[in-house]
Amino acid sequence: TTPDITLNSGTTIPQLGLGVWQATNDETEHAVRFAIDEAGYRHIDTAAAYGNEEGVGRALAGTSVPREDIFVTTKLWNSDQGYESALKAFDTSLAKLGTDYIDLYLIHWPLQDNDRLLRTWDALEKIAESGRAKAVGVCNFEPHHLQLLVDRGGLLPAVDQVELHPNLPQHAIRSAAAEHGIAVESWSPLGGTSNAGWGPNSKPNTLLTDPVIDRIADRHSKSAAQVLIRWHLQNGLIVIPKSVHDARIAQNIDVFDFELSDLDLSEIDTLDNGNRVGAHPDEMNIGAPS
Ligand code: A2P
């Protein structure tokens, strides 16, 4: 079964979860139900911007697994940054998810307005104090964004969820996060949902068909996706592979019966080429409030 990681909030998070970006409400409901009921997942990662919190909510309502046994993450969209707007957006997410608390509430992007960002963080700190989010954190924060929160004083994020895979291992973010007890979560852990990438400077991604990964997969009689997921787990990262297909959802959690060797891990480390599938956080301003 999936190991837990203890966050600086004192709560625990299953190290492997299901991502649902780009899935419709119906696809999400099905995928989450299958993941929880059939495949044994206990961690679901959604976002207001994905437009599928209701699908997650329907799955949570339909499963017989108790709410407290499932770790639910959602994220504050860019257009809701600011103090009052963040508090309101959090209530909307709770309603759509049909739950009275969130396990982990994240700022989706830092954007480029540090003052507004700090007011947003004030709101997340208040939400954490109220207990309606068991933990709060951030996504796509570079070390300079984390430093803003360190300099502010007060609550630090429990996690920083960033694009992270063997092409983009994010060593600078990982060491900054480690210094402050912040766990790192990998998004697009398999290289993302689109081969072409979606950021202004992103590169085509081919990790799932990479010959280095394939060779290691053959060595273990596992799939490329399973090898990539093990690389994240053995690097101490929280990993949320996305799929809406039952067989892949099941395959992606069937990774606790083998281990990558030090040689395997170092071969995968040679794939670092800095290529992103998404936007660099410093060039992301979609939906920014004016
Ligand atoms: P699908 O939902 O159609 O299965 P990410 O890196 O963001 O987690 O994206 C994973 C992408 O790879 C998704 O497009 C997903 O598509 C696909 N995928 C997920 N699991 C597997 C797998 N085990 N084998 C092949 N493709 C996968």
Topology record:
Layout: E1 4-6, E2 12-14, E3 18-19, H1 25-39, E4 43-45, H2 53-62, E5 71-76, H3 83-97, E6 102-107, H4 114-130, E7 133-139, H5 143-152, E8 159-163, H6 171-179, E9 183-187, H7 211-220, H8 224-234, E10 238-239, H9 246-253, H10 262-269
Helix pairs in contact: 1-2, 1-9, 3-4, 7-8
The protein binds adenosine-2'-5'-diphosphate.
Adenosine-2'-5'-diphosphate binds next to helix 9.
Please, could you describe this protein's structure?
The chain has helices at 25-39, 53-62, 83-97, 114-130, 143-152, 171-179, 211-220, 224-234, 246-253, 262-269; strands at 4-6, 12-14, 18-19, 43-45, 71-76, 102-107, 133-139, 159-163, 183-187, 238-239. By secondary structure, the chain is an alpha/beta fold. The protein has an eight-stranded parallel β-sheet. The relative contact order is 0.15. The mean pLDDT is 96. It contains ten helices and ten strands. Helix 1 (25-39) packs parallel to helix 2 (53-62), helix 3 (83-97) crosses helix 4 and helix 7 (211-220) packs across helix 8. The chain has a single domain (9-206, 233-243), classed as NADP-dependent oxidoreductase domain (TIM Barrel, Alpha-Beta Barrel). The protein starts with a strand and ends in a 21-residue tail after the last helix. Adenosine-2'-5'-diphosphate is lined by residues 19, 188-193, 208, 223, 225, 241-245, 248, 251-252.
